[in-house]
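Thread amino acids onto this structure.
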């Protein structure tokens, strides 16, 4: 419902076609002072992470126990930024019109995949030799090195292709209306785009296919890598539910990251006209479902071990959850990823707000850091990975200076790439917003007006 002045809640007046061109194409390519400062800070922190990696690599790659926090850094990026494009793909496949202003912001999370792919190469080098230990690939030729790399490469490439395909019509608009870098990119990569009906049909089909492939590859990547870099390193750990738990908690963390990014673009980026209560409220419903799934999947795996009470199952519980050195990390993940978010998001006034889901998302991001530490640092702490069960529970491994530098630098590098990507392509999709205007019409109602949306197909 809108008032007679065309306002909608606190979001301000609705955009016109000229507003879209000015704000999405022209204003979004300008680099402000605060943005430049943030870019320099995150770039410097990323370089600090590179220094931390060099210090860590100077000790060699033979002892995998020294690389637990490096693995945490890789899987945090996989579980946050690389999960964000799902927030664009899912609502698009369900033809949700409300998601149009947010799709590009979610898709740009795939840009961090480029950094994560290069982080993965040293991680492969620290894996213990395959002789006499478990592996998902058994004795299959090339496993795990070739196939794990190929799966992650396909996910990264699909994510970048998704961004490029989505941005193609906007690059064509930049070719005709923008200046500087975006104009050059438009001339180079979108000179052939004319917006004919055939081109739009092909564009829609390719975008849908890439989105489906990205969702499949995201789940496959989680399933394969979590087995190779955690389950296979702990003797006696057998769990068919845990890969799904890892993927779903990654989606929860990815959506939490997306909430923070939407909020920053709304408050600091000046996109309050586009990022309204409607977008935050709808995604908050999904966040509630993922929070409930967090507990459901954890309990589904835990209850089998708890009632089975085999020695190897008891050892796994003590290592990863209760009774061992990593119990505080698990309890912290349980509190920050499930208990606090659930107690807050079940309340309608909190869920149906802009600030509420953002605050909840900050708790979830703390929880996913603790969860990935308890999974990967504990798994990498196991010295003998060739046995049939744990001979002794490892002590907690605290991060050294190099670990902290790598963790902070890796996350900062992902943020840096995301910020750069928002200046290469518009963070709000021009063509999707233009299509939204075409299927919307204002109708009078009492002293105000309401907008009717046509079904596009």
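Threaded sequence (457 positions):
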């Amino acid at each position: 419902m809108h008032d007679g002045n065309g306002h909608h809640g606190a979001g301000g007046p609705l955009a016109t076609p000229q507003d879209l061109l000015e704000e999405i194409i022209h204003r979004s390519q300008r680099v402000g002072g605060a943005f430049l400062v943030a870019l320099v800070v995150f770039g410097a922190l990323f370089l600090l992470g590179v220094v931390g990696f060099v210090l860590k690599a100077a000790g060699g790659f033979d002892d995998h126990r020294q690389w637990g926090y490096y693995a945490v850094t890789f899987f945090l990026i996989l579980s946050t930024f690389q999960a964000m494009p799902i927030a664009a793909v899912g609502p698009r496949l369900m033809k949700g019109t409300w998601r149009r202003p947010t799709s590009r912001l979610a898709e740009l999370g795939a840009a961090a995949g480029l950094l994560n792919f290069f982080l993965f190469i040293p991680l492969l080098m620290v894996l213990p030799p395959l002789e006499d230990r478990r592996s998902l690939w058994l004795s299959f030729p090339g496993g795990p090195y070739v196939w794990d790399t190929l799966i992650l490469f396909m996910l990264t490439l699909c994510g970048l292709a998704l961004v490029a395909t989505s941005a193609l019509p906007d690059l064509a608009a930049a070719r005709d209306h923008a200046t500087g870098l975006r104009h050059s990119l438009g001339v180079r990569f979108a000179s052939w785009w004319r917006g004919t009906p055939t081109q739009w049909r092909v564009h829609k089909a390719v975008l849908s296919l890439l989105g489906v492939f990205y969702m499949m590859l995201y789940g496959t990547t989680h399933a394969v890598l979590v087995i190779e870099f955690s389950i296979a390193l702990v003797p006696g750990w057998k769990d068919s539910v845990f890969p799904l738990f890892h993927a779903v908690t990654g989606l929860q963390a990815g959506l939490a990251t997306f909430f923070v990014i939407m909020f920053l673009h709304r408050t600091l980026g000046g996109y309050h006209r586009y990022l309204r209560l409607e977008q935050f409220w709808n995604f908050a419903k999904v966040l509630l479902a993922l929070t409930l799934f967090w507990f459901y999947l954890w309990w589904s795996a835990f209850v089998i071990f708890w009632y089975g009470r085999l020695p190897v199952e008891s050892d796994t519980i003590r290592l990863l959850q209760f009774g061992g050195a990593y119990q505080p990390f698990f309890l912290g993940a349980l509190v920050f990823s499930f208990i606090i978010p659930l107690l807050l998001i079940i309340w309608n006034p909190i869920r149906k707000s802009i600030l509420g889901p953002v605050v909840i998302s900050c708790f979830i991001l703390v929880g996913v850091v603790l969860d990935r530490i308890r999974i990967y640092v504990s798994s990498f702490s196991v010295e003998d990975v060739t046995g049939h069960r744990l001979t002794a529970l490892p002590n907690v491994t605290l991060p050294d200076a190099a670990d902290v530098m790598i963790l902070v630098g890796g996350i900062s590098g992902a943020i840096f790439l995301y910020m750069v990507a928002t200046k290469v392509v518009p963070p709000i999709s021009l063509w999707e917003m233009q299509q939204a205007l075409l299927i919307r019409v204002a109708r009078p109602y009492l002293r105000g007006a309401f907008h009717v949306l046509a079904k596009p197909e």
